[in-house]
Amino acid sequence: MIRLELRPGLPTRIRAMSSVQVESSTRRLLTMAWLKRVFRLPAQESSIGLVLILCVICMSCMSIALVWQAQIIANQREAIQWLEQFKFGG
Fold this sequence. Notes:
Blueprint: H1 10-17, H2 29-40, H3 45-88
């Protein structure tokens, strides 16, 4: 006979864990209150422009890094093919 083990549903597990005092860094009351206060403020035009400029610079750096990595991978492929020809003679 196959015995099925029933696991408690998510709300039951949450209630069972509520007695344990495990506090995540993002669930602290001060952190959450600060996040609510910061994200309720209206964004200013100057800060939006600054963030957009920062995003463009970061994206540019990431695209340069991607091209650089592609060149490295291509060079590795050539080196691997050379080693295969050298080892196996063909």
